[in-house]
Amino acid sequence: MLRRLAISFMLAALALPAVARTRPHYGGTLHVEIEGDPWQRPDGMARRLVLDGLTRMEADGSAQPALAVEWKSENADHRWQFRLRSGVRFSDESTLTADAVVSALGAACGANCPWTAIHAVGSLVIFTSDAPMPNLPALLAGDEFLIAADAGGNIGTGPFQLNGFNNAVLTLTANENCWQGRPFVDAVEIHVHRSIRDQWLDLSVGRADLVEVPAEQLRQAREQRLTVLQSPSAELLALSVASAGVLGNPDLRWAIALAVDRGSLSNVIFQKQGEVTASLLPSSITGYSFLFPTERDLNKSHEKHGGLTPPPLTMTTEGGSAMQLAAQRIALNLHDAGFNVQVIAAGGGRSADLALRRILLASNQLQAALESILLGEGVRTPVLDQSPSRAFQVERNFLENHTLIPLLDLPRAYAVSGRVRDLRMSINGTPLLAGASLQDAP
After folding, report:
1. Same structural domain for residues 95 and 169?
2. Once rounded to an integer, what is the mean pLDDT over residues 49-73?
3. Interior CA angle at 83 toward 78 and 84, to 5°?
4. Using the 8-state DSSP alphabet, how is residue 101 labeled?
5. What is the pLDDT of residues 410-439, one digit of tens each?
6. What's the pTM?
7. How many structural domains compose the chain?
8. Which has the closest alpha carbon to 89: 172, 163, 152, 176?
9. pLDDT by residue (tens digit) across 109-128?
10. Of 42, 53, 106, 261, which residue is 20 to 30 A from 80 by alpha carbon distance?
11. CA 143 to CA 166: how far, in whole Å?
């Protein structure tokens, strides 16, 4: 009996350090490296650390309270009122008010808002629309509707506050008075415009805690035994097609859609890490993606543009080397169909006929996710019916214009160092740094 008691006490004593090691620690600086801009919409990770929305999206796709604690709809979803959380302050110590929210949201989406009008009444923010808005709580969790106190979008109510940007390093420090509670780490340093090669090298020698893993390099990351966090399909690779000028003819846009070889993009460029699609949303959400044909049809493509040689076209893309290679391959696909396409640098004030883009998944709920993509394309079409068949009709009607050509569903992934604890990812694959801690924090 005594021997068993002694062994039990010894095992309990040995377990205590293990528990202590897994308990989150406060303190330390989390070092992040990325290729792009941490403030750029829609996937700038710094924005989600500094700014909050009226709602937030839970892992199951439901809209949960954030800056708004409750909401209700009236008049068959034509009118919504959201009650603000009391006592919330921006990082500059100014108070969150309904007037501040109205001002921020009015500037966020301009004429392309899902509502017709917005106004403040006491602690209420009231949205009205000529059309029903059944998905408004979920839509308000989107990146474009985050609330800032300033025109530059730098002052928010989130777990971190902007501290400075020097030598290509964006520094965020913990917001001690955040309504959600203080984050575990003292600071996040985001090193920008770092190549994937340099990111992985810095991770290997302990200079970085979180680095990017592009979809096309997931297999390589696993071969190098990196600790990888990977989301399900979180972004859509799509080709935007201008509906004016040379491509104002819908048959020419249809010819382009028929000429793209999605299979080669998936197999060669993205190393079979994405799913070929001609639908706006992943099959895991809709169940109907297979109804949109993905096969290349050069004969029908030639037929659609009537054998004529269209004027030269331009294509832009943003992102890393894989996006550039994908754009070049699409240009070759279109050359086979009789189009002359030149890939040019993005920006510079020059508009292009085609643009290869990544579109983040806003929700894993069918109606809200579809409506969010349509809003992003300037189309205000509320998805009213909760049935997949109605969503399919809405999506098909939009895709028949061939102004957006879905190509691949891709995951998002990051590699983390061994000292990072409790790091999770959002629905769209953004790392939730506010909940992470460092094992070796003091």
Report:
1. no
2. 92
3. 135
4. H
5. 999 999 999 999 999 988 889 999 999 999
6. 0.89
7. 3
8. 176
9. 777 789 999 999 999 999 99
10. 42
11. 25
Close Cβ partners of 252 (under 8 Å, ≥ 6 residues apart): 246, 304, 305, 310
Secondary element (H or E) of residue 138 = helix 136-139
The neighbouring-strand residues paired with 164 are: 171
AA letter at 404: L
- Is residue 261 a contact partner of residue 333, using CB atoms and an 8 Å limit? yes
Tens of pLDDT along 156-185? 999 999 999 999 999 999 999 999 999 999
72 with 134: CB under 8 angstroms?
A: no
Query: Is the domain of 214 the same as that of 291?
Result: no
Instruction: List the Cα angle 159/51/186 in 5-degree steps.
Output: 25
> Alpha-carbon distance 438 to 442, whole Å?
9
> What gap in Å lies between CA 413 and CA 420, rounded to an integer?
15
Buried b (16+ CB within 10 A) or exposed e, 51-78: bbbbbbbeeebbbeebbbeebebeeebb
What is the per-residue pLDDT across 175-222, written as a single tens digit (0 to 9) for each?
A: 999 999 999 999 999 999 999 999 999 999 999 999 999 999 999 999
Range of 394's domain? Answer: 233-410
Residue ending a domain, among 101, 119, 145, is 145
Pure H helices in 265-319: 283-286, 298-304
Would you call 280 helix, strand, or coil by DSSP? Answer: coil
Q: Which of 5, 165, 28, 140 is nearest to 73 (CA)?
A: 140
CATH at 270: 3.10.105.10
State pLDDT tens for residues 237-291: 999 999 988 899 999 999 999 999 999 999 999 999 989 999 999 999 999 999 9
Claim to verify: residue 175 and residue 106 sit in the same structural domain? no
